[in-house]
Specification:
The protein has 542 residues and is α/β, with parallel strands linked by helices. It has 4 domains: 9-127, Udp-n-acetylmuramoylalanyl-d-glutamate--2,6- Diaminopimelate Ligase, Chain: A, domain 1, CATH 3.40.1390; 155-262, Beta-Lactamase (2-Layer Sandwich); 277-427, Alpha-Beta Plaits (2-Layer Sandwich), CATH 3.30.70.2730; 437-541, Arc Repressor Mutant, subunit A (Orthogonal Bundle). The protein is 49% helix and 15% strand. It has helices at residues 9-12, 66-78, 97-105, 119-152, 158-169, 190-205, 237-265, 269-276, 282-291, 319-332, 359-371, 374-377, 398-412, 429-437, 442-460, 464-473, 478-485, 489-503, 510-527, 535-538, and strands at 22-25, 36-39, 53-57, 83-87, 110-113, 172-177, 183-185, 211-218, 221-229, 301-310, 335-342, 345-352, 382-388, 421-423. The strands form 3 sheets. The chain has a 5-stranded mixed sheet with strand order 1-5-4-3-2, sandwiched between helices. A 5-stranded mixed sheet has the order 11-12-10-13-14, sandwiched between helices. The chain has a 4-stranded antiparallel sheet with strand order 7-6-9-8, with helices on both faces. Helix 3 links the parallel strand 4 and strand 5 (110-113). Helix 4 (119-152) packs parallel to helix 7. The radius of gyration is 37 Å and the shape is elongated. The N and C termini lie far apart (86 Å).
Length: 542
């Protein structure tokens, strides 16, 4: 592994002032990493250490207390110190066997100086080397980043970036693209790959100092993961920084590829428009999908229309980025996405790659993810309506889904309780009203059932129309109706009596009630999208 920054105990004992030193215990721990050197003459140092410190001491603090000595060594082991160097015959003449046994058990090096040594000179010598190495580390990291950024300008595939980090670290590199097979650099046998994958997976549950991973996010979604695996030496902070920089570079490269791909899709507009109009045969559609490397796993699809409703003159900040966001999220939920942009609408053809049973839930999940993204939250000047058409099969019927998506959007814009996204199959009575409106004079029907109430409200502002609507929604519960209208029961009784006088005492009987409820929906369909309080709209059917 190419990492010159692992300063170990075995390196320390080869330095000046350690010529006559001997390792008394913990020989198996001489590869412990050393990050700093401390001179300690205290009996408790638990709060003074950060880990990987080499401790120098004369032993004056515990020279006559074996139990205190043992306790100190236990603290050093618990705080992950690199080792303990003791000057013999100045204050202590021997090391208790219990301390030696404890050090051997935990592979904790204890080094003895047989004569007086200058601790200050030792710390200056080692610290100078450590600081120089830290400066070198920063320099190398900056150099790596600059070379990587230059490489980004010319690389064709992400494999080039994987080779680049491998050449820097000389460790096993594993790249996990979302919904694709992992990529190994260098290549191994299938058996070796399987073992590495199992160890990486296990490290997610229990951290492993020989394995490190960095997620790669695009549009707030985890798009891939980059892992490094070391067989011999624990992964250092320097390795982690290299991993982090490389993960960022991969994210930029993948985003660039997606952006270029999205730009190319603009050229597909005419063909996709013909598909939406029902111009192509099954064979033509199949050939088009093959040309776009899209292997069908099912034969069903659905059309969504995303309408951008601008509340200010400022448009959506980056329509291409918005389409990339849509594509990325829907693909992760099991759809292939083809898009057509028309003025303030983006028409999406979604081809299903999974089972049909949970298709609607996957669309909902994707839409919620898009609307909850940071990009959308920042678009304070725009609102969205998303209308989903009917799921169709085979794909030659996509034009039917498109027509129903347009119908959904039309109805959606007329609804009082407008939802951000709506499915055609959930519209029920609104679809019936929409069809009736092209063949029947709905205003005449509306006038027949609701004109007396509307006229009375216009004349006396009695709020009978609102009371009727809430009373029906509450299934005739007077208490619930009064609570929702924030009025006392006596006021409600007075209004209900007026409604009986205007609509007839039988207005709550089944058939008449259903007709009135239907007319309330008709009223909403015809007038909810008009400006004003609603009374202005009422006046048009007097």
């Amino acid at each position: 592994m190419k990492d010159q920054f692992q300063f170990k105990v075995s390196d320390i004992v080869k330095r000046k002032h350690f010529e006559k030193a001997m390792i008394l215990a913990g020989h198996e721990g001489i590869n412990r990493m050393v990050k700093w050197v401390h001179i300690v003459e205290a009996t408790s140092i638990r709060n003074l250490l950060k880990g990987h410190e080499l401790i120098l001491s004369t032993g004056i603090a515990w020279k006559e207390d074996k139990e205190l000595f043992i306790s100190l060594v236990e603290e050093l082991i618990q705080q992950n110190a690199a080792g303990l160097c003791i000057e013999i015959d100045t204050y202590i003449s021997e090391i208790p066997q219990e301390v030696i046994a404890l050090a051997n058990e935990h592979q904790f090096p204890i080094i003895l100086f047989p004569e007086e040594v200058p601790f200050v000179e030792i710390t200056q010598d080692i610290h100078t080397d450590i600081i120089n190495q830290q400066y070198q580390k920063i320099s190398n990291l900056e150099n790596y980043s600059q070379r990587l950024n230059k490489r980004l300008l010319s690389v064709e595939t992400y494999e080039d970036i994987l080779q680049f980090i491998f050449s820097a670290l000389d460790m096993q590199i594993v790249f996990f693209p979302k919904n694709q097979q992992p990529v190994f650099v260098p290549e191994n046998s299938p058996e070796e790959n399987q073992i590495i994958l199992q160890e990486i997976e296990a490290a997610k549950q229990e951290p492993n100092s020989y394995i490190a991973s960095a997620p790669i996010f695009l549009f707030g979604q985890e798009f891939a993961e980059l892992s490094v695996y070391s067989k011999e030496i624990p992964i250092s902070e320097y390795n982690l920084l290299i991993l982090d920089r490389t993960a960022t570079a991969l994210a930029q490269h993948l985003l660039r590829d997606l952006y270029v791909e999205e730009k190319k899709r603009v050229e597909e507009f005419e063909w996709l428009q013909g598909w939406l109009e029902g111009d192509y045969s099954a064979a033509e559609i199949q050939n088009y999908l093959w040309d776009n490397r899209n292997k069908l796993r099912t034969n069903d699809g659905v059309v969504l229309i995303t309408k951008l409703v601008h509340t200010a003159e400022k448009p959506l900040s980056d329509i291409t980025y918005f389409k990339l966001l849509i594509r990325s999220v829907f693909e992760q939920n099991g759809f292939s996405v083809f898009s057509v942009e028309k003025r303030n609408e983006i028409i999406l053809i979604l081809l299903n790659h999974r089972g049909s049973k949970n298709l609607k839930n996957r669309i909902k999940k994707a839409i919620e993810s898009i609307l909850g993204s940071e990009f959308i939250k920042k678009q304070t000047s725009a609102q969205f309506l998303i209308a989903a058409g009917k799921v169709v099969e085979p794909l030659t019927e996509i034009h039917r889904s498109y027509q129903t998506a347009k119908e959904t959007l039309r109805i959606q814009q007329k609804m009082t309780n407008r939802q951000t996204f709506q499915f055609y199959e959930d519209l029920h009575l609104y679809r019936l009203i929409s069809q009736m409106s092209s063949q029947t004079d709905l205003q005449e029907l509306l006038s027949e059932y609701l004109q007396p109430v509307i006229q009375y409200d216009l004349q006396y502002n009695a709020k009978l129309f609102e009371t009727l609507k809430v009373y029906l929604e509450c299934n005739g519960s007077k208490q619930e109706t009064a609570n929702r209208l924030f009025i006392v029961r006596q006021t409600l009784y007075h209004r209900l009596q007026k409604l009986e006088n205007l609509l007839g005492a039988d207005f709550m009987e089944h058939e008449k009630r259903v007709a009135i409820e239907f007319m309330l929906l008709v009223h909403e369909y015809l007038y909810a999208s008009q400006p004003g309080t609603g009374l202005d709209a009422h006046s048009s059917i007097r």
